[in-house]
Amino acid sequence: MALNPLDLYNIRDQLSEDEQMVQDSVGRFVDERVLPIIGKCFDEGRFPDELIPEMAAMGLLGSSIEGYECAGLNAVSYGLINQELERGDSGLRSFASVQSSLVMYPIYAFGNEEQKQKWLPLLARGEAIGCFGLTEAHGGSDPSNMKTTAKKDGDHWILNGSKMWITSGTVADVAVVWADTKDGIRGFIVEKDMEGFSAEEIKHKFSLRASITSSLFFDNVRVPDANLLASVKGLKGPLSCLTQARYGITWGVIGAAQACLQEVLDYTETRVLFGKPVNQTQTIQIRLADMARRITGAQLISLQLGRLKEAGKMKPAQVSLAKWNNVRMAIDIARDARDMLGGAGISTEMSAIRHMLNLESVITYEGTETVHQLALGKELTGVSAF
Q1: Read out DSSP for 110-165?
Q2: 366 among known catalytic residues
């Protein structure tokens, strides 16, 4: 029986029936609803927001959360959701990742019951959109260099500053914003209609064009004390959210790589040069084999990482290794696939260049490759080189 070129080690056999059902249902959604439109959305610089109600109805938003109208799926199922969505486009996976891991998760983990009851069902149903305000223009990889501040004023906090490179910022109903206070970094639920809060979309992108990227501005925004995420202080709050999102990214980029490999498998079978299909040449077969090797390694890493997460044993350094390895794998495959497609590879009628350009953002956000290398180096040596 022939091996599946996208699953050489039969990873699917290691999945439970429920996990397989999740992958199959999201895969059908991507095939039927995403792939027919995503190239045009990328061309137009438009996020396909018409898909949000369907994603919500499938339980893809906040899928790992128990209760509050969320699906309560396990970690591997969440990973598979990300993998299939990013097989469609990184922008769609980014939306689901931000909504789930960077907005719903901190409200669930650090919010009080009133905050959870108010926001989590709305966000799960897609009736409210969220964004995550951590990154600042001058900060980048150093979130401790935070300039956004919040000062207590009676039963309110006065928020001033700005955030940059924020997914979904201009369409968000709610923002989870991190600001420096006299007691350290704290998280706040900022609602879109609060006076002094504004958002501006970032245009002229060559990457994540089917995603909304924004800047957030806070000019003496009065945030009620009731909107403080009171149970966490310091960088461990936002960094724990990023660990959740990075975990999903390690799976997501596998989907992008699989899309590129399948595309070049199909193309090189039918593309005839010098009297024979190009997949009959040693050069092409070696390159295809290398793609499959890299994807297989990434699949095994993410599956084991998921099982560690489910057992409560996952460590941030393990996520750093997976994010570093898997995104590097995916971007290298996308670039090579673009080349193997020849002139056709520069068109968004093919997926490789779209994935290649998107992955330039994915390899940068939520920890650059260098940051994750140094995080692992610190774990190995016990010494920080930051």
Answers
A1: HS-HHHHHHHHHHHHTTSS-EEEE---TTTTT-TTS---EEEEETTEEEEEEEEEE
A2: yes
Nearest Cα residue to 322 out of 346, 306, 339? 306
CB atoms within 10 A of CB 52: 21
Segment (H or E) for 31: none
Query: Of 69, 366, 369, 379, which is the active-site residue?
Result: 366
Residue from 115, 125, 116 nearest 71 by CA: 125
Taking only the tens place, the pLDDT of each residue in 183-242 is 999 999 999 999 999 999 999 999 999 999 999 999 999 999 999 999 999 999 999 999
Pairing of strands 174-181, 130-133: parallel
Interhelix angle 236-270/90-97, rounded to 10 degrees, is: 160
Q: Regarding the domain delimited by 11-124, which CATH topology (the fold level of the hierarchy) does it fall under?
A: Butyryl-Coa Dehydrogenase, subunit A; domain 1 (1.10.540)
Residues counted in the chain: 386
280, HSE (Cβ side, Cα atoms, 13 Å): 8
CATH number of 130-229: 2.40.110.10
Q: What is the pLDDT of residue 98?
A: 98
